[in-house]
């Protein structure tokens, strides 16, 4: 299997966080699409390949070493200066439905460890993400 691009690896991370609780909600999938459409890191990504990229992630999970394989690919292809961005994208998806399950928390912790995102940075990202997703009701 070919090594993913940095864009694809970012999407893989969002997909694995969403799928970690075995329930990829419509809200989470919508948030992945929103991120790909609106975050500057995806400016030059061909959005028409998003579904194929998510499917490639699923295949990679099954054939390429599972979650650890995805994390290894992410470390390899995502520039270090974007590791906090990768974590922010994953946190965005985990918080999309306002109900972060234990499995999602665990995957975020593993991601933080694998990408060497320090605790203060992760806490700031988590806090900002939660604040952004709150509603009045």
3D structure, described in words:
The structure is a single chain. The chain contains seven helices and no strands. The longest helix has 15 residues, at 119-133. The termini are far apart. The chain has a single domain, classed as TerB-like (Orthogonal Bundle). Helix 1 (6-19) runs antiparallel to helix 4 (66-77), helix 2 runs antiparallel to helix 5 and helix 3 (50-63) crosses helix 4. It has 137 residues and is mostly helical.
Strand-and-helix sequence, N→C?
A: HHHHHHH
Shape: globular
- Going by helix content, strand content and strand pairing, the class is mainly alpha
Distance between the termini: 46 Å
Rg:
14 Å
How many separate structural domains? 1
Mean pLDDT: 91
Question: Would you identify the CATH architecture?
Answer: Orthogonal Bundle
Classified by CATH, the class is Mainly Alpha
The total count of helices amounts to 7
- Percent of sequence in beta strands: under 5%
Major sheet description = none
Show unreliable segments. none
Helix content: 55-70%
Write down the oligomeric state.
single chain
CATH topology: TerB-like
